[in-house]
Design a protein that fits this description.
binds manganese (II) ion, 9-stranded mixed β-sheet, single chain, alpha/beta, 13 strands
C-alpha cells in the first residue's frame, strides 16, 4: 500500500489513572483502540495527541496533522460554561478541556477538518460559547434511553438528520439509528454552529460549524459501530476525504 497520500489524523488522548497493581495511581496516556482501527480502516494514519498545557506547543502539534478527531471521555468542567457543579456531574479534567479548546480554536482558524465524538461534540459546543445539561435528568422532556444498557456497538435510538446538512450528505439518509452512551447533552448551541441531528425526544445529537469546510460533532460513538454500520464507516471516510482535500491545498 502506498500510504504517502493518506492523511494523518490527530486523536486527542485521555489520561487513565491505573487503579490496581504495582503501578497504582500512575497516569497513562490512553485512547480506545476502536478510534485507531476506524481511522485506519477509512485510509487515515492515526497519531495520538497527548494533552499539553502550552498553547504554542499545541499549535505545533496541530501543524503535524491533516485532520483531527476529538475523542470521547469524561465531563466538561461546568465552570467553562458558567455553571456551578450539579449533583450528577461526573469526573472532570480541566487540563484536557483547555487543551482541546486550544486545538479547536486553531483548527477553526486553519480550516483543519475535525470530527468530534460524544465529549468531542460537547467540548466543541462549549468552545464556541454554548453550554450543556450537566446530566440529562436536568431536562424534563427526556424520554429515551441515552445511556444504553445493551452492547456498546448495538444500534439504539434514532437520530433525525437535518436536510441539506453535511451529515445528510455523509449518511445519505434522513435518519440514522445510533448507539447512545452519554449522560450530558447540548443545552444552548454555541456561536456559528448548526444542529444537524436530533433524537426523537429533542436532544441535539449532531452539530456542524458554519464557515468551516468540515467541523462536525456527533453525540454517539461511530467508532464502536464500524463493524455493523455502513453509516458509521461513512463518517470516518468523510473525515479522511476532507483531510485529503486540505492536504492538497
Ligand atoms: Mn443519545
Amino acid at each position: 500500500m502506498n500510504s504517502s497520500t493518506n492523511p494523518i489524523i490527530g486523536i486527542s488522548a485521555n489520561i487513565l489513572t491505573i487503579d490496581t497493581g504495582c503501578l497504582l495511581g500512575r497516569e497513562r496516556v490512553f485512547i480506545g483502540q476502536d478510534y485507531i482501527r476506524a481511522i485506519m480502516q477509512a485510509g487515515g494514519i492515526p497519531l495520538i495527541l497527548p494533552i499539553l498545557d502550552c498553547d504554542e506547543s499545541t499549535i505545533r502539534q496541530l501543524d503535524l496533522v491533516d485532520g483531527l478527531l476529538l475523542s470521547g471521555g469524561g465531563d466538561v468542567d461546568p465552570n467553562l460554561y458558567g455553571q456551578e457543579p450539579h449533583q450528577l456531574l461526573e469526573a472532570t479534567y480541566l487540563q484536557r478541556d483547555l487543551y482541546e479548546m486550544t486545538l479547536l480554536r486553531h483548527a477553526n482558524m486553519k480550516k483543519i477538518p475535525v470530527l468530534g465524538i460524544c465529549r468531542g461534540l460537547q467540548i466543541m459546543n462549549v468552545s464556541f460559547g454554548g453550554d450543556l445539561y450537566q446530566d440529562l435528568k436536568e431536562h424534563d422532556q427526556i424520554a429515551l434511553q441515552h445511556r444504553q444498557k445493551s452492547q456498546l456497538y448495538q444500534e439504539s435510538h434514532l437520530v433525525d438528520v437535518q436536510k441539506g446538512s453535511i451529515l445528510e450528505r455523509i449518511c445519505q439518509s434522513d435518519s440514522i439509528r445510533t448507539n447512545s452512551l452519554h449522560h450530558q447533552a447540548i443545552k444552548n448551541l454555541g456561536k456559528g454552529l448548526n444542529v444537524s441531528g436530533r433524537s426523537r425526544d429533542g436532544i441535539i445529537e449532531a452539530i456542524e460549524k458554519i464557515d468551516h469546510p468540515f467541523m462536525l460533532g456527533v453525540q454517539w460513538h461511530p467508532e464502536l459501530m464500524v463493524e455493523v454500520s455502513p453509516q458509521a464507516c461513512a463518517l470516518f471516510q468523510a473525515l479522511i476525504n476532507a483531510s485529503k482535500k486540505g492536504k492538497q491545498s
